[in-house]
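assembly run, all chains below
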Amino acid sequence: MILKFILNTFILTMLTFSLSAEETGSHEHSEGEKGLTKEEIDEGIDHHLQDAHSFHLMTNEETGAHYGFPLPVILWDDGLHMFMSSAFHHGEDLVKSGDKTFMLFHNKIYSINESEPIFISKKRDTTIINKEGKEEEITVTDTIHSYSYSEFEQNFISHEGHLPEEAFIANAKPIDFSITKNVFLIIVIGLILFLMFFFAARSYKKHGYLPSGLGRFLEPIILFVRDNIAKPNIGEKHYKRYMGFLLTVFFFIWIVNLFGLTPIGVNITNNIAVTSALAVMVYLITTFTAKKNYWLHIFWMPGVPVPMKFILAPIELLGTIIKPFSLLIRLYANITAGHIVIMSILAMMMFLSSWIGSSLSFFLAIVLGILELLVAALQAYIFTMLSALYFGSAVDEGDHH
Amino acid sequence: MEKLINEFSIGMFFWQTLLFLVLLFLLRKFAWKPILKAVNSREENIQDALDMAVKTKAEMKKLQTQNENLVKEARVERDQMIKEAKETGNKLVEDSKKKAKEEADKIIENARASINSEKNAAIAELKGQVASVALEIAEKMLREELSSSDKQKTLASKLAEDISLN
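ok done. output:
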């Protein structure tokens, strides 16, 4: 009975979705120029994946009103510049702070001078023969065009134009320490995590050794990290030192990934800077807690002929950097790919604008959503697992060889 | 790759590092430490209880065998004691019997002796009494016979006759 009801609701939802998709589709087609083009969808996906300077929830296309709230912008450009992101008016206005003028364009802030032109350039790699007669690879920057600000505004901001492919604005970018959408969400998630585990920890005190409520749910996961990740990879003797980092990184990545799947759509782990920061921490912890045996295995690999030792040393040394690097790329790529696929399928729903195609892609999006739910936990597990493995190699005392 | 490098934001890196370290510090202090401590002590408690159970079981078994041995020993001892007691009892009865018999014999002997002596005494007394009674009778008869001069004369004559006869 219940199952039938759920099924009916599901079919009904699919129908509504496909119908509304068809409606918007035809509506947009009738307007001709305003239909979603491939570039626009690409741009939309790209935009969705990118960080932003304000917390933007939605835009009313008809009235042009934006819903969301501004976040503080903190810039370093020969001095500290701080203001709220609302000052940019979603990129429509320039912001003057001190003696500098800043422009927000496609989520990036540029330092410009209204009287000077804005350069749009294109990068290409070329090989040239240098003075010593050797081949040298250089990056040549071609200026495609230079616009005055008013021209730029006319072409790219007012009409929401796009820069030509592979082109970028060559003007200086200040170092951006803004509390962006991602930073804001990291703070929020950090708070959630802290409160969650703080109360879980407190519940132990109330009932002696037994947790209650949230703690009862979280304890098996904590024990999973301890017994299935930390202990087998690091070993009974040293695992306790790393538990704090492993648990924090596991829950951080997991919760952050789950948030990325919500309609708020903030993807923190698909920001390369975030995964880099985590990987750098793993590298530093591995390096600074490493025991003698770890360095011995890098610089003077036991059990191989002496000439081989000299060959192995640089390879092993490089390996220590490649290991955490693979961590950052793996996490970044997995989450980004997942989001791109889901959003592409959702975009397909708009494109197909037919009864069967749309519901099919809707169904596909749901299946992929479930898969992403799994990936969210899996990536947290893999990151933690590999970190533990690296820590394990650092403290390995070679007694089980 | 170029896109990746382009996407890399120093600010984001900075904030992520800072916020993560703060989170790590706070969680470590207020969550992981107390939770893991509680879990560890709970596990230790369970382990202790289990060890204790095993130990107690072994002890119980030991006690049981000890008890069994004790019971066995007690049984043997009891049997021994019963046997001894029986023997002692028997001996006692035998002894008493013997003693009683001896005593009885002695008493009988004594009784016999005293009866004899009593009898002898009684006989002697009776003899005496008979003699005195005979004397008395003889006296009485004499008195009677000698109460008159005739009689005295007769007697005297008779006596004289007897004597003369002799």
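Chain B touches chain A at residues 2, 4, 6-17, 19-24, 26-28, 30-36, 38-39, 41-42, 45 (CB under 8 Å).

DSSP finds three helices and no strands in chain B.

not gonna interpret more than that til we talk
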